[in-house]
Amino acid sequence: MPKGILEVDDVTLKLGGKTILDGLSLDVWEGHVHAIVGPNGAGKSTLASTIMGLAGYRGHSGTLRYRGENITGLTVDQRARRGITLAWQEPARFEGLGVRSFVQNGAGDDDIGKAREALEGVGLDPDKYLDRAVDQTLSGGERKRIELASILAMEPDLVIMDEPDSGIDVEALNRIFEAMRSLRERGATVLLITHSMTVLEQADHAFLICCGRIVDKGDVERISGFFGDKCLPCDHKNVPDEEVFAGE
Hints:
By secondary structure, the protein is of the alpha/beta class. 34% of the residues lie in helices and 26% in strands. It has helices spanning 44-52, 76-81, 99-107, 112-121, 126-129, 140-154, 170-185, 197-200, 220-231, and strands spanning 4-15, 18-29, 33-37, 61-66, 69-70, 84-87, 158-162, 189-194, 205-210, 213-218. Strands 6-7-8-3-9-10 form a 6-stranded mixed sheet, with helices on both faces. Strands 2-1-4-5 form a 4-stranded antiparallel sheet, with helices on one face. Helix 4 packs across helix 6 (140-154). Mean pLDDT is 84; it is low at 238-248.
């Protein structure tokens, strides 16, 4: 039996008066690539934010355990120091922050060699990108790859990737898949949040989520068959009103 790294136990979260996660439980195995797949509005990104402990997503019942430790009450920073990180669906822009600083901050030291290696690992030439700013001059695909470079430099134990194919071209996605395989080769665990068949096929194991619950789990071929035939036409929506987080 594979060794577990993350346990989500009976987690329920309500946002805007709607139950988004509904008694959800799952176990994540160490050193594997897992996919959490389901239609839009099923609770996938909410689960990612809850595991990371983001503001607005910590008022849930149930328990989160990481390497056997109850992390339910820990802050984002405390979870990050334990080796958990989240690659955003829409990477942030940091006006005034350079790529060099952004990636080196991930490494936690002044080793420019590690920053260069991380950029090369996502298919970006360090000589062309280290002195650029993380701002609107970068495309969405470039920002995603730079964010992933900072994660590679960080060498985390658990990486949650929320919709890694969102807003990028095929070349950028293939580079992200290569970086994901590099993380796994280093012994990291990857949790893919997706509704894409292409992304799902990169996983070793998959969970199917609907209405905030895990309704099935197993090998990717079986889960992808059901998801492709039954879930993709589903128009289920269960998202909170946009104004719930207004001003946060």
